[in-house]
Amino acid sequence: xxxxxxxxxxxxxxxxxxxxxxxxxxxxxxxxxxxxxxxxxxxxxxxxxxxxxxxxxxxxxxxxxxxxxxxxxxxxxxxxxxxxxxxxxxxxxxxxxxxxxxxxxxxxxxxxxxxxxxxxx
Length: 121
What we know:
Layout: H1 3-12, H2 21-28, E1 32-40, E2 52-55, E3 60-65, H3 69-73, E4 79-80, E5 86-87, E6 89-100, E7 103-114
Parallel strand pairs: 3-7
Antiparallel strand pairs: 1-2, 1-6, 2-3, 4-5, 6-7
């Protein structure tokens, strides 16, 4: 296994003994995790309403938001700027991992807190 896959497995707490790519994919798909970072629209040039999540390390992920209508309404005005910055919302919650081809997507199903839109530093 290459170093990136081993680090990903160690970070997610998945068993380091996965021997095939299929086993690795099966171990990640459906896994529930806690997330902290920023959420907003503006990073998908094909869909200006599509949500993205940026973790505390600066990695971005596409989002399926399944946390209910009330939580969705609090996301109004949360927007990333395409080339950095913007005014996304700080968010803590829970998500399920989904693999779409080789891309990791977050299905956010529970929100602990969403802060109002604020400049991203």
